[in-house]
Amino acid sequence: MNVNHGVAQAYLLGQLAKADGAERGFGRMMIEHALDAFSKGNEMFGCRVVRLDCKDHLKGYYESYGFTVTGKNHNGTLNQMVTII
Which residue of 4, 28, 35, 38 is most buried, as measured by CB atoms within 10 A? Predict the structure, then answer.
């Protein structure tokens, strides 16, 4: 893992939210597509870490995709999660 000044480089899975009108399974397809794109990026750039922030009620959802909670954000409102690709 490339760590520089105590910071590891990571892809950010951000701005992914639940939309009540979206087709069932659409979020899963988006996550799988993003992880596939990040895996291809890993082949080119070497970055293997994907991170995200989520609210408590979504922890289990992201854990089902292999993400692990590493802590809370600075104000304690979001879970910080990572996975290795």
Answer: 38
